[in-house]
Amino acid sequence: MDTFEGKVVLVTGAGAGLGKASAMAFAKRGAKVVIDDIDVKSGEDVARTIKAMGGEAMFVEADVTKAKDVERLINKTVQTFGRIDCAHNNVGMGDRSPLIESTEDLWENVINANMKSIWLCMKYEIPQMLKQGKGAIVNTASVAALIGSPGGSLYSAGKWGVIGLTKSAALEFAKDGIRINSVSPFGMIGTPMHDRMLISEPEFVAAATKEAPTGREAYPEEVAEAAVWLCSDAASYVIGHNLVVDGGFTVK
């Protein structure tokens, strides 16, 4: 198991689902974990859990679709721990509105959550990593960025943007010792977003899960392990890669 002893890792959207699984995975490997979420109770619960198992964690409430919040999040992290070695930028929101029924406000909300948040996080994380001379960033994209899906236009657009941002930023900072990659999980992953879809669109979830070669949804921990590996020294020559964790869904 790769160790993150002495390293500082920031995970956004870490109050539940994939973000929580990622924070826990880094903590189990010895990292000092900074947990971001807009849900104070959930974020504090994750930090408390990590501390209870002997780890070091700090919760910071921040809306990463807002520049001032992201700047404050990064400043608080550096003030407390002195550096940021790795970041898993994981905030996002789902949407399955038919394109012609979607509104401008919905477009802005979905794109802000899924793409603007990634851009803002990298904008403020990278300067700190440049000062350090090293860093690793993983952005959460989706298989929705690789294939089309009826009703998924806005969500797919945002996630396509994540991969584009990741690849271009990776090239921009590769020579500076900063590795930037993305992870694209199968949409049917056991998260609160998935649970909401189970209520609103149970037939869609059932059909999509059935289409997976594994015949099941992904577990948050399975995707978190991929993010951890991309941040680890074992992936030292992996740059600008989109690691698909979909149980074979997109290779059929």
What does this structure look like?
The protein has 252 residues and is α/β, with parallel strands linked by helices. It has a single domain, classed as 3-Layer(aba) Sandwich (Rossmann fold), CATH 3.40.50.720. 48% of the residues lie in helices and 15% in strands. It contains 8 helices and 7 strands. It has a 7-stranded parallel sheet, with helices on both faces. Helix 2 (40-52) links the parallel strand 2 and strand 3. Helix 1 (17-28) packs across helix 8 (220-231) and helix 4 (104-132) runs parallel beside helix 5. The two termini are 31 Å apart. The model has no long low-confidence stretch (mean pLDDT 91).
Q: What is the compact description of this entry?
A:
The protein is α/β, with parallel strands linked by helices. The protein has 8 helices and 7 strands, in the order βαβαβαβαβαβαααβ.
Helix content: 40-55%
Strand count:
7
Query: What's the overall average pLDDT, rounded?
Result: 91
The count of helical stretches stands at 8
Q: How far apart, in Å, are the first and last alpha carbons? A: 31 Å
* CATH topology type: Rossmann fold
Per-chain topology:
Layout: E1 8-11, H1 17-28, E2 32-37, H2 40-52, E3 56-61, H3 67-81, E4 86-89, H4 104-132, E5 135-140, H5 153-173, E6 178-185, H6 192-200, H7 202-211, H8 220-231, E7 242-245
Parallel strand pairs: 1-2, 1-4, 2-3, 4-5, 5-6, 6-7
Helix pairs in contact: 1-8, 3-4, 4-5, 6-7
